[in-house]
Amino acid sequence: MAITAAMVKDLREMTGAGMMDCKKALNETNGNMDEAVEFLRKNGQAKAEKKASRVAAEGVVNVAVDGDTKAAIVEVNSETDFVAKNEKFQNYVAEVAKQVLTTEATDVDAFMEEKWQGDAAKTVKDALVEQVAVIGENLKIRRFEKVSADNGCVVPYIHGGGRIGVLVVAETAVVNDTVKEALKNLAMQIAALNPKYVSDSEVSADYIAHEKEILMAQINNDPKESQKPEKVKEGMIQGRIKKELKEICLVDQVYVKAEDGKQTVEKYLEQVSKEVGATVTIKKFVRFETGEGIEKKQEDFAAEVAAQL
User: A Gene Ontology MF term for this entry (predicted)?
Assistant: First the structure.
């Protein structure tokens, strides 16, 4: 397969690796973009996490709640930041979130065919098309999720005017202001540090095996580290995996408001549980970041204004 300059440019933007490294990776993988990313990771020239965490589209994340036990979160995309900050658009997204709270749909396609709560003569899709006509941009209901807490509560958090939205589901026999404040603190931590799991018990064996493969390839591609005995290499990998799990598992992270800078989220929850006289356990969290994983065409500010005009 012929490797084009555009392919090299795309891979470079995705991984942050050098131009020649990207070209080599594409040649080695016959132009397969996903395999090229893996190739660069194994050679220590890129990290997939950087690609996944980049925000690359505009829009808003919003939440809707039903008491303390039910909540919904939705992401609706727009083409520009101008529209994302528009009050009419934000009000529309709030209405979508309210409908998600009551929907029986399990995916966006089914949701789009439902009757619109604001006007039973329309579907959700019809209402979206109307908004596109009024606002003048292409809009998309990208994703949603509903959560409930049968034996506890749900706490929502919106950051940056809808740039990031978080729902935290906790199991607890006591639901009071102290518990809710603690859960909001953790929702803010989730927004800021973007953990992937509640605890390491959720991490699959396949994920661990894959990360070990990447780390071993990085070690073997390092002239100094590759000379070390296999037992030492295994020890290095175990240490790095342990460190990574502390970063991606919420309860193992250092609690960001810890006065000593050492208290983990797990210890913080134990402290809160003791204070309220009931065990507070995080069962689940959902974190949506606007444009997560979507590539956005690069435009300067002047061009964006011109496009609006």
Answer: translation elongation factor activity
Number of C-beta neighbours around residue 53 at 10 A: 12
Higher-confidence position of 262 and 61: 61
Mean pLDDT value across residues 136-156: 93
**Residue 81 backbone phi and psi in degrees, to 5:** -70, -30
Q: What is the pTM of this model?
A: 0.74
Residues 284, 190: Cα–Cα separation, whole Å: 11
Assign domain 58-198+284-308 one CATH number from 3.30.479.20, 3.30.720.120, 3.10.450.320, 1.10.443.10: 3.30.479.20
CA 53 to chain centre: 7
Domain boundaries, the chain: 1-53, 58-198+284-308
Inter-axis angle of helices 19-28 and 33-42, to 10 degrees? 120
CATH code for residues 1-53: 1.10.8.10
In angstroms, the first-to-last Cα distance of the chain is 41
Q: What is the dihedral of CA 267, 270, 272, 277, to 10 degrees?
A: -170
- Residue 279: which pLDDT band, with cuts at 50, 70 and 90? very high
Q: What does the block give as tokens for 33?
A: 């973009």
Beta bridge partners of 171: 152, 281
**Cβ atoms < 10 Å from Cβ of 57:** 19
Q: What single DSSP character describes residue 215?
A: H
Give me the pLDDT at residue 102, please.
Answer: 94
